[in-house]
Amino acid sequence: MTYGSDVLGNNGVMRHDTLVTRHGQIVRTKEWHGVRSGDPVVVNGPKERRQQWTFVAHGLNEVTGEEWVEVRGGRVGEAKGRSFRPEMIYPSGARRGSRVVGLSLASAPQLALG
Q1: Please, what is the Cα angle at 18 between 14 and 21, to 5 degrees?
Q2: Mean pLDDT of 67-94
């Protein structure tokens, strides 16, 4: 089951732009706490802090309640797919040199006002 909006593709055919995808008990969402697929994020881990990451999706196992955030990136020129606990994901402006400041997206969503 998917949720999203129908849009007219480049070839004139309707395609379904999916925001939420279900595979059994697993739910993947391409928007989470104010970030969308493709937005830059900071991962607060010893090695990951120095690398470049892009948000891909938020995952949830509805049976166990387990959550994770899927990202893509790594060192310059890499595009590794990784997943991390939500509390390790920060907005792109949270990096100050080698430190991460502020609250994670899990604690303080970056939602639009209005």
Answers
A1: 140
A2: 96
- Residue 35 within a domain: yes
pLDDT of 12 above 60: no
Residue 64 lies in a domain: yes
Tell me if 108 is assigned to some domain.
Answer: no
Domain count across the chain: 1
Distance CA 71, CA 37 (A): 9
Q: Does residue 87 belong to any structural domain of this protein?
A: yes
Per the CB < 8 A criterion, the answer to whether 23 and 46 are in contact is no
Question: Percent of the chain having pLDDT more than 70?
Answer: 82
pTM: 0.81
The parent domain of residue 70 ranges over: 2-100
Contact in structure between 21 and 67 (CB atoms under 8 Å)? no
